[in-house]
Amino acid sequence: MREEERSRTYYIHTFGCQMNQADTGIISTLLRNEGYKPAAAEEDAGIILLNTCAVREHAVDRIENYLQHLQGMKKRRKDLLVGITGCIPQYQREEMFFLSPAIDFLAGPDTYRTLPSLIEQARAGARLSALDFNAAEMYEGIDQERPGSISAFVPVMRGCNNMCAFCVVPFTRGRERSHAFSTVLKEVRQLAEAGYREITLIGQNVNSYSDPETGRDFADLLAAASHAAPKTRIRFTTSHPKDISEPLLRAIAGHENICNHIHLPVQSGSTRILGLMNRGHSVEEYRGKIDLIRSIIPGVAITTDLIAGFCSETEEDHQATLKLLSDVRFDSAFMFFYSTRPGTLAARTLPDDIPEQVKKRRLQEIIDLQNEISSKLYEEAVGAVVEVLAESESKRSGQQLMGRTATNRVVVFDRAGHEPGDFLDVRITAATSATLLGTAVDN
Ligand code: SF4
Fold first, then answer.
1. Using CB atoms within 10 A as the burial measure, which of 59, 124, 182, 205 is most buried?
2. How many domains does the chain have?
3. Same domain for 116 and 223?
4. Atom of ligand 1 nearest to the CA of 267
């Protein structure tokens, strides 16, 4: 490829959550609209973008390591441009330029429309950043580019107003704002017509969705999305316990194509710790929501997020978390130990006083208990016939496919003539703590 041609090709590495994956699709469309072309691999690209995540220290370390690799590439290729987008530059701001000479420009989640101009100015030797918050920016009219054709993420809002003490999101994605009801429905219809089999409505806290035009809430939006794409599975993530409402649960129970799975982060089983985390609810209130969910939605799967070793966490607080896991029996969980995020409420007001080896020991106890619970729950599915949406070939063998149930459980099964994108019934024959194994049932 001629150098000039290559200079207008880009490659994006995406780190972090579904919102970042959706933003990568928006960035790609914005660059294509300006005549840039996606490269198949970073070696073929004239511009490399890292779309970053700042949620934990580990995520930031990864970027620092990757920048060393890019610095090496730039030694060999003087024309290569490197840009950092997403949550880390929004949070570390221009300080990031000191992190590595490889960085040519920075852009935050609200400024992606400036990328073409940042690129051209970087090509002329300027090292610039675009890091303003812009609550009006919803990238309306920018069709998100999507990998694959089976599952699609549809952002229904941006930002978050909940100031959870450990979280950087409000400082990287700004204030909460919702997409127009009509815009979301139009996108859902278009995706269903394009043949997508599953649509996930995404946001940092989708339950606080509110249509800027009519004030309609998330329960209304979910029901409308279900009607707009009746043959498509509808999912949503992430929920905040304080915003779980009965109308929302009735919308899920009342529409067959809305998946009976709710991801409901709890973070800790101690009301004292939840208070320090500024989560806005007690453990008793959380247990009440769990009971309400299970009373309204039969067979619902509930998953969660947990943080071990938050500031001042005692052994008693930790035991309360283990007790909550034993009582609630989550289907599965994302589990981490606390790492301070500079600038957050916790970093400014609470000492990170739990020794790392104690954090790691408590995290391991949480993981061991949750894996035991998941194993038992998954084992109970053996012998059952479940509906699966086939998503891809299984990593284990091309003779097998991987898919998921409506309750978001991963199923690996013998192909038996099926293809990714098929909905089919699978008889479960075996289980691990994270995967169901089975055979396709001929209907
Ligand atoms: S709800 Fe809390 S944890 Fe979730 S994104 Fe908002 S501030 Fe962060």
1. 205
2. 3
3. no
4. 3
